[in-house]
Structure formats: C-alpha cells, structure tokens
C-alpha cells in the first residue's frame, strides 16, 4: 500500500503533470505527498574556495529561493484535499530525489519524463532514467 509519494518538480509543464498524477494517486491510496524541488549547485568553484552557504545547503541567491518557494506554493495550491509537504534541497537532481525518498520514507516516486535544468534548458529523461535505476521503489514517469 502506498503511504507516502515523493513528487519531484522543476517548474516545467511535465513536472506539473507529475504533481497532478501524484495528487490523483494520493487520493486513491490516501497517501501523503511531498513536493521536492532540487536546486543544482554551481558546477565549478574556484580552486581553494569553499562556499559556506553552499556547504550549509542554503542557496546564495535569496530571490532564487523565494521563486522556488512560490512555485512550490503554486503547485501545492493545485492539489486540494491532499496533505502536501514542500521541500527544497541542493544537489544533483536524480541523486537528491533518491536520497530524499530514502530520508522521508517515501514508498513511491513520481517524476516528469523531461524537465528543465537550472539554466532553463531541457533535460531529456536523464534525471528520470537515473531515478528509475537507483530508486529501489516504484517510480512513475509522467509524460
């Protein structure tokens, strides 16, 4: 029986469809839903430079974090009558999705078939493929 569904969102239309699917599945199973947005860390840091905010898991750009929280609130508002938790994490998307599913005890993961990276460019299934390979639990990929 499904009790906790983790839905990864990134603001793309596909991830919004995934959120709606997760909501519908939660309604059928009386599960709770966690919406997860993963912020990717900068790819390159100068040699010898340690970014305390990055290490602590706090985004350096408060506007970016505010925009992500608005997105999570907006998506959650479209999921009435479902218990929704909203989480923002920093890391590589696929690895962070799997790690958060483990940490939260989610027994089902829902992701979009393709999404947007931090630069707004399309990722063609690389995240969903990696999540499927490493999740160790059912994963639904929404097109």
From TrEMBL:
Domain (UspA): residue spans on this chain: 1-143
UniProt xrefs under Pfam families: Usp
InterPro entries: Rossmann-like_a/b/a_fold, Universal_stress_UspA, UspA
Family classification: Belongs to the universal stress protein A family.
Protein name according to UniProt: Universal stress protein
Species: Cystobacter fuscus
Classification lineage: Bacteria, Pseudomonadati, Myxococcota, Myxococcia, Myxococcales
């Amino acid at each position: 029986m499904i009790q906790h569904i983790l839905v990864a969102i990134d603001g793309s239309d596909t991830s919004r469809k995934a959120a709606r699917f997760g909501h519908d599945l939660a309604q059928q199973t009386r599960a709770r839903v966690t919406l997860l947005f993963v912020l990717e860390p900068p790819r390159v840091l100068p040699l010898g430079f340690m970014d305390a905010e990055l290490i602590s898991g706090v985004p350096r750009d408060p506007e970016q974090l505010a925009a992500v929280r608005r997105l999570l609130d907006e998506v959650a508002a479209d999921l009435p009558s479902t218990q929704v938790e909203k989480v923002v994490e920093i890391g590589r998307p696929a690895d962070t999705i799997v790690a958060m599913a483990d940490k939260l005890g989610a027994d089902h993961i829902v992701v979009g078939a393709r999404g947007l990276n931090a630069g707004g460019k399309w990722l063609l299934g690389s995240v969903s493929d990696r999540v499927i390979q490493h999740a160790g639990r059912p994963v639904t990929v929404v097109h």
